Amino acid sequence: MGTLWFLTRLVPLCGAMLLAAMVPASAQGQSKTFRDWTAGCDNLRSCTALSLPDETAQTVGYLRLERPAGPGGAVSLSLKLTGEKLKAPLTIGLKLDDAPFPAGGKPLAAGVEDGETARIVFSEVDTAALIAAARKASRLSATLAGKTYAISLAGSVAAMLWIDEQQGRLNTMTALIRKGPAAASTVPSPPALPVIAARATGPALADGTAKALGAALRKHLKASDPDACEDDDRGARHNPDRAWPLDGGRKLIGLYCGAGAYNILTGYWLVTGDAMAGARKVAFAGNDDNVLINSDYTPESGQIGYFAKGRGIGDCGGSGNYAWTGSDFALTALSAMGECRQLPSDDWPVLFRSEVKVTK
């Protein structure tokens, strides 16, 4: 095993995450790309739409529209522009194609996030005006600290129309795009937020114990399932096998199963006592395998978190969490971005959310 093994495992995993196929079809949100916009809705039908910067843009700016489900779901529209050593107060000048926006052309005050991102949250009036203008305008231009940013509006109307459809707003007074006479009360309420009971567990077992458990499990897998995990001594030196005690005499064992330039694969098994013959692959909802990318288990919360990068800068891929429930691991959170277009993971559409209650 080696490079070929890694590629055959990584490609389907990344593909599943990029396509948001990490939860059962009955519970998962959806995402879809429309030219230079992408949109996603979660299991509560709360939706996000994002403009996609050019892949090679030196100045990155994008619009982010959010709307929760339900009759009273209010629209929030913001603009983010990246820069260097930004300090408040800041103003941003805007144009829709070549016309000043908002009307009158007065620059808008912007807040500063982490010193490198300026952000405007549009008023309700300006949000409505920008949505209406998107039907005809092709781009929003912004100027900040002597730099110019181009935000494409191509696909924005289709993305918002798709959100209206997902939330049951078509032909209602609350629709973003296809408004109609139907009252807001006809818009469906959101589903209930799932509540996941996670079990906190003990701290990681000592390195020597984990190494011995990992070696015993690898020996068993070599005989029973030789393709289950790559056996790479050189890589394993930098990414040792790990193990954690669970309840009921069970242990969670994480085996290093390969790596690429920016992704590390870990396979997870459940073992009772030291009986490796009864080792069971952890079942992760929506994932055909028990391998996660760039993952780790946090005993205090009883959760495994992962962040699968579609490329090195981490602007696409998938991230999420699974919680130990006492019998298996249940999905608690999922975000995904299928387009590698310089968008930070904090702004990726959320496709699954829940309330996690941790017990000991």
The main β sheet shows up as: 11 strands, antiparallel
Helix content: 10-25%
Low-pLDDT runs of 5+ residues are 1-26
Whole-Å distance between the termini? Answer: 40 Å
Description:
The protein is built from five helices and 23 strands. The protein has two domains: 33-186, Invasion associated locus B (IalB) protein (Immunoglobulin-like), CATH 2.60.40; 195-359, no CATH class. The strands form four sheets. Strands 1, 2, 3, 4, 5, 6, 7, 8, 9, 10 and 11 form an eleven-stranded antiparallel β-sheet that branches. Strands 13, 14, 15, 16 and 17 form a five-stranded antiparallel β-sheet that branches. A five-stranded antiparallel β-sheet has the order 18-19-20-21-22. The longest helix is centred in the middle third of the chain and has 18 residues, at 207-224. By secondary structure, the protein is an alpha+beta fold.
Quick overview of this protein structure:
With 360 residues, the chain is α+β, with helices and mostly antiparallel strands.
What attributes characterize this protein structure?
360 residues; alpha+beta; Immunoglobulin-like; 2 domains; eleven-stranded antiparallel beta sheet; five-stranded antiparallel beta sheet; 5 helices; 17% helix; elongated
Task: Give the SSE map.
Blueprint: H1 3-18, E1 30-34, E2 37-41, E3 47-51, E4 61-67, E5 76-82, E6 90-96, E7 99-101, E8 108-113, E9 117-121, H2 124-133, E10 139-144, E11 147-152, H3 156-166, E12 195-199, H4 207-224, H5 233-238, E13 242-245, E14 250-259, E15 264-272, E16 280-281, E17 291-293, E18 295-298, E19 303-309, E20 317-324, E21 329-337, E22 350-352, E23 355-359
Parallel strand pairs: 12-23
Antiparallel strand pairs: 1-2, 2-3, 3-4, 4-5, 5-9, 6-7, 6-8, 6-10, 8-9, 10-11, 13-14, 14-15, 15-16, 15-17, 18-19, 19-20, 20-21, 21-22
